[in-house]
Amino acid sequence: MAEKKKTFEEAMSRLDEIVTRLEKGDAPLEESLKLFEEGTKLMKQCSGLLDKAEQKVQQLTAGADGTPVETPFMTEGE
């Protein structure tokens, strides 16, 4: 049975737990490697979720007639 995908918040929370555990340095090597692997997968999942969210974000601005017009969200440097 495949594991259910975590929400962004769940994935970030788990990632925080993993980082805290790895920073302590008291996990055996085998467990540390498993935690690192899980953390890498979670990081990729979060990055993908953020990319999707960024693509959906639209900035509303007023058009010439005063009605809202959707324009692509601009990030810094664009």
How would you describe this protein?
There is one protein chain. The protein has 78 residues and is α+β, with helices and mostly antiparallel strands. The protein has 2 helices and 2 strands. Strands 1-2 form a two-stranded antiparallel sheet. A hairpin with a 5-residue loop joins strand 1 and strand 2. Helix 1 packs antiparallel against helix 2. The mean pLDDT is 83.
How does the SSE layout of this entry go?
Elements: H1 8-24, H2 29-56, E1 58-62, E2 68-72
Uncertain ranges: none
Distance between the termini: 44 Å
What portion of the residues fall into strands of 2 or more residues?
5-15%
Provide the helix percentage. 55-70%
- Mean pLDDT metric: 83
E-strand count: 2
Using only CA atoms, what is the Rg?
A: 19 Å
Strand arrangement, major sheet: 1-2
Biggest pleated sheet:
2 strands, antiparallel
Structural class: alpha+beta
Short description:
Helices cover 58% and strands 13% of the residues. Helix 1 runs antiparallel to helix 2.
Spell out the key features of this protein.
alpha+beta; 78 residues; two-stranded antiparallel ribbon; 2 strands; 2 helices
